[in-house]
Automatic annotation (TrEMBL):
<dbReference type="InterPro" id="IPR000888">
    <property type="entry name" value="RmlC-like"/>
</dbReference>
<dbReference type="GO" id="GO:0008830">
    <property type="term" value="F:dTDP-4-dehydrorhamnose 3,5-epimerase activity"/>
</dbReference>
<feature type="active site" description="Proton donor">
    <location>
        <position position="132"/>
    </location>
</feature>
<comment type="pathway">
    <text>Carbohydrate biosynthesis; dTDP-L-rhamnose biosynthesis.</text>
</comment>
<dbReference type="InterPro" id="IPR014710">
    <property type="entry name" value="RmlC-like_jellyroll"/>
</dbReference>
<feature type="active site" description="Proton acceptor">
    <location>
        <position position="62"/>
    </location>
</feature>
<comment type="subunit">
    <text>Homodimer.</text>
</comment>
<dbReference type="Pfam" id="PF00908">
    <property type="entry name" value="dTDP_sugar_isom"/>
</dbReference>
<dbReference type="GO" id="GO:0005829">
    <property type="term" value="C:cytosol"/>
</dbReference>
<dbReference type="InterPro" id="IPR011051">
    <property type="entry name" value="RmlC_Cupin_sf"/>
</dbReference>
<keyword id="KW-0413">Isomerase</keyword>
<dbReference type="GO" id="GO:0019305">
    <property type="term" value="P:dTDP-rhamnose biosynthetic process"/>
</dbReference>
<protein>
    <recommendedName>
        <fullName>dTDP-4-dehydrorhamnose 3,5-epimerase</fullName>
        <ecNumber>5.1.3.13</ecNumber>
    </recommendedName>
</protein>
<feature type="site" description="Participates in a stacking interaction with the thymidine ring of dTDP-4-oxo-6-deoxyglucose">
    <location>
        <position position="138"/>
    </location>
</feature>
<comment type="function">
    <text>Catalyzes the epimerization of the C3' and C5'positions of dTDP-6-deoxy-D-xylo-4-hexulose, forming dTDP-6-deoxy-L-lyxo-4-hexulose.</text>
</comment>
<comment type="similarity">
    <text>Belongs to the dTDP-4-dehydrorhamnose 3,5-epimerase family.</text>
</comment>
<dbReference type="GO" id="GO:0000271">
    <property type="term" value="P:polysaccharide biosynthetic process"/>
</dbReference>
Length: 180
């Protein structure tokens, strides 16, 4: 495995080594010791998986409040997504800034989204399956989010936002200014 860091401290793109032959390929998707040494010393406590049937489905921007903030290790098992992390650490010099990466089932990339970041993704192919590990279990009372289209964040989603497929919850998320 290899990794790439971004200009915003914290998130990392993890690039697996695919070993292929006529049968297909093999890859190590997760190795705890490697992750602790190269990315961050965390323990994952829950795995989640979602299926998004339509291209242009946006899930997010989601995060959990203390005492249950979540770090997420995100991977696309089928299809492709544009995955986003937004810095919501109040003391951070990069508060409100975002990073994005395309994750595909074909290449097996993973995005590490540490605690202190809101997370969201947009599907680029139909019937996309996303799998992610989290560092704290889901807690409904601590569940929170931000508007995916907040101009103060300015995410450059790769779809026509007027055609985005959203949950009722994601249609009414607050703006970034609500965190200040």
């Amino acid at each position: 495995m290899d990794s790439k860091r971004f200009e915003i401290s914290g998130p990392a793109l993890i690039l697996p080594k695919l070993i292929g032959d006529s049968r297909g390929y093999f890859m190590e998707a997760f190795k705890a010791d490697w992750f602790r040494e190269h990315i961050e010393d965390v323990t994952f406590v829950q795995d989640n998986q979602s299926l998004s049937a339509q291209v242009g489905t946006i899930r997010g921007l989601h995060y959990q409040k203390a005492p249950f903030p979540q770090g997420k290790l995100v991977r696309c098992l089928k299809g492709a997504i544009f995955d986003v992390a937004v810095d919501i650490r109040p003391e951070s010099d990069t508060f409100g800034q975002w990073i994005g990466a395309t994750l595909t089932a074909e290449k097996g990339e993973q995005l590490w989204v540490p605690e202190g970041f809101a997370h969201g993704f947009c599907t680029l192919e139909p019937d996309t399956i996303v799998f992610y590990k989290v560092t704290n279990p889901y807690s409904q009372p601590h569940d929170a989010g931000l508007a995916f289209d907040d101009p103060a964040i300015g995410i450059e989603w790769p779809i026509d936002l007027s055609k985005a497929v959203l949950s009722d919850k994601d249609k009414v998320q607050p703006k970034l200014a609500s965190l200040r």
